[in-house]
User: Fold these one by one.
Assistant:
Number 1:
Amino acid sequence: MTAVTNGVNVQALLDAREVLKGAPEAAQFTWRASAKWQSGVHSTIKVQSYFGLGEEQNHKEEWTFEADHPEVFAAEDNGITPIEYLLVGLASCLTGGIASVAENRGIQLRSVESTVEGGHDIRGILGADSDVRNGYNDIKVTFTIDADASRQEIEALVAQSQKRSAVFDALTNPTNVTVEVA
Amino acid sequence: MPTRALRKALRGQAIERTTTVVIGGGQAGLAASYFLSDRSIDHVVLERGEVANSWRRERWDSLRLLTPNWQSRLPGLRYEGPDPDGYMTVSEVTEFIEHFAKVSRAPVRTGVRVTSVRRADDGYLVTTSHGEIHAPTVVIASGACNQAAVPPLRDAVPVSVEQVTPFGYRDPAQLPDGGVLVVGASATGVQLAAELRRSGRPVTVSVGEHVRLPRTYRGRDVLWWMDASGVWDQRYDEVEDLTRARRLPSPQLVGTPERTTLDLNALASMGVELLGRWAAVRDGRALFSGGLRNVFSLADLKMERLLDTFDEWAKAEGYDAEAGSPERFPSTRVPESTRLQLDLRSGEIAAIVWATGFRPDYGWLDVPVVDAKGHLNHEGGVVDSPGLYALGLPVLRRRRSTFICGIEDDAREVIDHLARYLAVRR
């Protein structure tokens, strides 16, 4: 297999996979975010610490995100909407997955771009129609990929990426979510 | 009265001694017995029911083998009937295996249930419903399909909905009238979905990962290609992801005289509704994955790669001229929108068929050779305990191992190893 330079340390991931097969406790991660309301529907979210491999961990810096709604929602547009963050997550998760699978399969990527569209009927969240769901009705991702591979191989990369994507799973399958007041 | 039993009776609960105990009187156990006899190794075959018990008791009425008859072979016995390209019914398979047991004069003891196997005195003590046997070697041939693997979702299904597994299913008439939800779209799932749809019931299939194959390719049975091209000859130690290969579900095939392809497009054309993988139950509603489209893509892409392999082989072997031209099949059609949930309390679904696969049962095996997922630790049938062997498991030694035409080579090789083990022990 020719050496490719997609930049993914696939060997480290494969090694980790082997180790974690025998140590499921170490594989238990907890990702975290802390949010603070600013005003209106604007809030600021910070992400730094997480738990994994048996101990507390930290990103190398604290990351900050603003969330708000745009002016058509009579808000101030201080940040993207919460529902758009899901598209950010999905696109980046699938893209990272494509790079990893390509590295593992010895496929050299030249460029990977995508557009994500989520169809959303806002009558749900406005309470205008109880038959309309709050979330997306459908999401479509379109990838444009330039790589040293046949179309079939590229389609297989995209299929495998979905198969192992955390966000794809989180969006397509139900997840238990508990919301409490301390 | 046999001498051994008499001696036992006279001595009270004496332990019988032999050289090999074979557990399971199906095709795997009988193949092991054939090679043991061939080497004059003293042995017994213990069968909890009758010979070919699983075929008699645990299969539905319309079932036929997925493999064409010419691929039915056991050591020294070939299919010699009038329909080599046909597919054996359950009673024909039972007869075939029974005939083999008679012709090979296998020392089978029927109605004997093994309750424990444990290491003792440089060998194994096998406890059965009819006494104890000690032997330096044991061959586990009890199969990979002792129990239906039903997900915990079953407990959340309302009692008003009838549930059945492939072991309990015989024909459509036994299910109540009304809609059926078939969970799983591998061989069992597609076959039962089609049969139930033909009985006039509304049928919904929850589709997880599956293996798609056409029944015929370029004029030949697709399993002819698996055999001829060498795909089935791939050894277990050459397979990239062996754990995955051993867990592959049976391909979406059915054995019919017309050699029809029974894939998801065929089911959809019959009016079967396809839903995503069943993920959860909440407030009496079944929730299904919205990722169905990719499940289709994965299966379509895998099939295409396999057909590419067949075409490459045909070209290299100069077979291109004889065979029909390469074919590619339409992608699995994705419905406009698929339902993400179904109300199990509405009465829409009267019955659920769990076509979710099978698991082996090693509850009687008191030797630490079973992993956390309940599967046997073995290297090509040589189990991780001296003198202990296995046969009749998927991809035991080759991809072919999973099918009836694979048992002969596996049994010969495993018994070879067993014989060498015995020779070294002396």
Number 2:
Amino acid sequence: MSIISPSEVTLLKLRRHPIVFFADSFVLVFLLALPPFVVFFMNITGAQLPNDGFIPVIVILCASIYYLYITLFLFYNFFIFFLDRWIVTSEHVIDIEQKTVFNRSVSKLELERIQDVTAETKGFMETLFNYGDVYIQTAGERERFVFKDVPSPQFVADIIVRAVDKLDKKGI
Amino acid sequence: MLSLLFTLYLALVFIWFIFSVLVITFTLRYHIFSVTNWMMIILYVIISLQILNVTGESLTKYTGTSQLIPFSKQRTYEYHLSK
């Protein structure tokens, strides 16, 4: 069963800004690049690992596991980034949050319940890349919906406000 | 020592494999028609296979074999030769 009913029109489909994924993955990319740097510096300084016995095999196996797991964590980061979504339709706001592989929550909010929409951009990176948070104040059980690190938060807030206005006019 | 090392390595690779399959399955469960998703999965599989391939080649270079069981056989063979 689809989360959006056929009568609804999808206005926005949002994910976090890609720069957030790259910023989160920066440490992992740095760790990927670390062993070649170590080898490079060892070559410069003339230091060498003993080339006999178990040591080369241990180094190969450790490097193999190290790279396999870092690649896995990078892919896992992408997976979490990719499945975190916010959808704005003509009738609802849908918040799909993927916390971990086995932890996913989907919240649906009727546009009629929205009381206030706030767009917030703070910090150097957010201003430079034009992304930020959109807070949706509601009258429901869950008082505040947050669209985290979405691109063009001002535009998103504007679309939501317009959709609410349109729905109010239809209601009248 | 080497057998223990390989057993540990295989255990870690097994855990990695199970977790990779889980992550890929769950990603596909929610976004099976997404081109980006498929591209990322293919990229991940290619990189992983490449890492395993390089590991195998390096092991072959240093030990003469990339397989686990022939290690003991090879050592026995060399032992007989020396006698």
